[in-house]
Amino acid sequence: MTVHTPVEKITSNAVPEQGVADITVAYGDGIGPEIMAASLKVLIAGGAKLAIEPIEIGERVYLAGNSAGIATESWDSLRRTKVFYKAPITTPQGGGFKSLNVTVRKTLGLYANVRPCSAYAPFITTKHPDLNVVIVRENEEDLYAGIEHRQTDEVYQCLKIISRPGCEKIVRYAFEYAQAHGRKKVTCFTKDNIMKLTDGLFHKVFDEIGAEYPTIEKEHWIVDIGAAKLAAAPGQFDVLVMPNLYGDILSDVAAEIAGSVGLAPSANIGEQCAMFEAIHGSAPRRAGQDVANPSGLLLAGVQMLIHLGQSEAAERVHNAWLKTIEDGVHTYDVFTEGVSKQRVGTNAFADAVIARLGQKPTKLAAVTYTGAPRLNLPRYQPKPMQKKEMVGVDVFVHARMEPDTLAMRMKDGVFGDYQLKLITNRGVKVWPNGLDETFKTDHWRCRFMIDEGKQMNGRMVASLLDRLTQAGIDVVKTENLYTFDGEPGYSLGQGQ
Ligand code: NAD
What we know:
Layout: E1 21-26, H1 32-45, E2 50-55, H2 59-63, H3 72-81, E3 83-86, H4 100-107, E4 112-118, E5 132-138, E6 148-150, E7 156-158, H5 164-180, E8 185-190, H6 198-210, E9 217-222, H7 223-232, E10 239-242, H8 244-258, E11 265-269, E12 274-278, H9 295-307, H10 311-326, E13 329-330, E14 342-343, H11 346-355, E15 388-398, H12 403-411, E16 418-425, E17 428-431, E18 443-450, H13 458-470, E19 474-484, E20 487-488
Parallel strand pairs: 1-2, 1-3, 3-12, 5-10, 8-9, 8-10, 13-14
Antiparallel strand pairs: 4-5, 4-11, 6-7, 11-12, 15-18, 15-19, 16-17, 16-18, 19-20
Helix pairs in contact: 1-9, 1-11, 5-6, 7-8, 9-10, 10-11
Bound molecules: nicotinamide-adenine-dinucleotide (NAD).
């Protein structure tokens, strides 16, 4: 086996030794270089066959004028190796810097964020010794689409984008993961009692795809009560799948209640590429002191080896790590007087894991990765197109006036077989028959609907907007209202 030192660059022309996997490695900022060197040392000692291509990302790249924190040449390496092992980076203070993580995830189509979180009681102090969950978070959509606008003096919006392919891919991933890892239950968290179309789609797809996995128990919780239960009694959960924002928040909660954010790994998986990292940041105050816990990044390395088909090495490293934790060899963040036996730094911790390679834990459960089935993740197949009919338009208006006055002026714009049916303010119906008590801002949604049996079209909307503009109405946006096979593709106003 060829062992490449972490800084050695293997060119794409080099013929890789059989079974050796090319990976791109970023050492990152703060504690990043220390925990990456320690993790690679353990993985390689554990039998990982890796040819490493280092790239630079993060603070220095940002400050050199690259607002995404990653140089153009680095994408060539990522596209070539398709596997990214990434240490945390520091995002410089001040505006104008884009999130490197969001850029990499979205550019490489890394749709699934997989975060296993376990308690290691009684060796690592936790209120929840029975915690053992895997959070599968959708990674590309939801409010993270980053489409935000300011529309009036008082109102800003962020679009929540949820797509059927996005839902199908992540939900299938969660069930396939559960099946491959012998997990018994998949729980879905959404807020579909409020967001009936977007979160409603996620829930619907969960039910559809879940039906293909009869041996796995399925359940759905509204995210607020689900989150409360996860924090109070995590033992009742196994695999969890959820849209991006809920998953972002709850995976940190789960990591923290497990004992330390320093322990949790994260895999970002796409159809072609994958990225593996710790969930924590670059902890700049701990940098250069050889004290940081490399466990999160090391366990992300274990996920990477499984992804690369190097399951034996993954199993050996993970079991040696569990034995180290069980033997009470702990870094400062998880060290507890009376429970821990030896307080060590980053390097000594890595050496302690290496010394236990080949051993298994005796009290904590040992892991088995060899022989696990590969995940069956078919490409998304678009459904047949549905019959789409335009039945109206929502016209959003910036105005400071009473709803009745606004309604009168909006009605003046009507010229055709459609009517002004409704005005809402922040989603609540204020016309007709609104209540004085309802608080109103300067942002109004005016809903025009076509008469029964007729169809609206783009020309009608254009002429409506033209007349409204001539009448001095400040239109800030429109949304066409469609039915799909007769089903409304829009929500009702609250109170309608
Ligand atoms: P952080 O995760 O770096 O640190 C939070 C706390 O956890 C600190 O008290 C730190 O000492 C401790 N901690 C974190 N990792 C540890 C480890 N491995 N061992 C021991 N203790 C550890 O979060 P922060 O302080 O909010 O952010 C610092 C920088 O990291 C910021 O620039 C932020 O933007 C960046 N960040 C990067 C990533 C990433 O690259 N994926 C993720 C989160 C934050």
